């Protein structure tokens, strides 16, 4: 058995990646907070361009929905960023590459699995957030038109389609 170090080396590119990634994340979250602040300040004020189409009660409901969806989106973004950084910085990717090499797989299946495994981890991590958005938030505001079965089948179809498209891109 060959010993293989999976530790991530701290270097200039890693530091640059982390700096840019952090700036992008903070910028995205800052914009979302700014949007939420705007919604809170103008909760029931109907903009002049919407007068006659939306009343104050309906606007309040729309703003409450948008606010809750934004809060969940921020939580989802932070959690997903943490998981992604753990996958990248923990050495999981080099370990996966080493494991796939040890399995003597040809380049095509190894390449598909190399991208499929972390994608699957992130996808599975994201499912509870999607479930909560659809079956709690959207249900609360009367926007949900989906059943659990439809939601589950949509995710299965989406996963299979992503697998096929990703595989074709590696050919």
Instruction: Give the N-to-C terminal Cα separation.
Output: 31 Å
The total of beta strands comes to 0
Q: Major β-sheet, in short?
A: none
Helix content: over 70%
Number of helices: 5
The oligomeric state is: single chain
Tell me the β content. Answer: under 5%
Poorly predicted sequence stretches spanning 5 or more consecutive residues: none
Query: Rough shape?
Result: extended
> Measured on Cα atoms, how large is the radius of gyration?
22 Å
Tags for this entry?
171 residues, mainly alpha
Q: Can you describe what's shown?
A:
The structure is a single chain. This protein is mostly helical. 77% of the residues lie in helices and 0% in strands. The radius of gyration is 22 Å and the shape is extended.
Task: Describe the structure concisely for a colleague.
The chain contains five helices and no strands. The protein is mainly alpha-helical.
Blueprint (SSEs and pairs):
Blueprint: H1 12-41, H2 56-89, H3 92-102, H4 107-140, H5 148-170
């Amino acid at each position: 058995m060959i010993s293989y170090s999976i530790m991530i080396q701290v270097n200039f590119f890693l530091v640059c990646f982390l700096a840019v990634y952090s700036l992008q994340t903070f910028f995205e979250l800052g914009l979302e907070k700014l949007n939420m602040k705007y919604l809170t300040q103008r909760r029931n004020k109907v903009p002049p361009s919407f007068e006659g189409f939306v009343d104050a009660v309906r606007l309040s409901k729309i703003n409450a929905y948008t606010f809750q969806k934004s809060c969940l989106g921020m939580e989802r973004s932070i959690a997903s960023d943490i998981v992604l950084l753990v996958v990248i910085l923990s050495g999981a990717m080099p370990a996966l590459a080493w494991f796939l090499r040890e399995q003597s797989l040809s380049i095509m299946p190894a390449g598909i699995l190399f991208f499929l495994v972390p994608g699957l981890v992130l996808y599975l991590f994201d499912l509870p957030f999607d479930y909560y958005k659809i079956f709690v938030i959207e249900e609360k505001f009367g926007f949900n038109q989906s059943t659990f079965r439809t939601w589950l089948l949509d995710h299965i179809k989406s996963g299979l389609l992503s697998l096929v498209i990703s595989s074709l891109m590696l050919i």
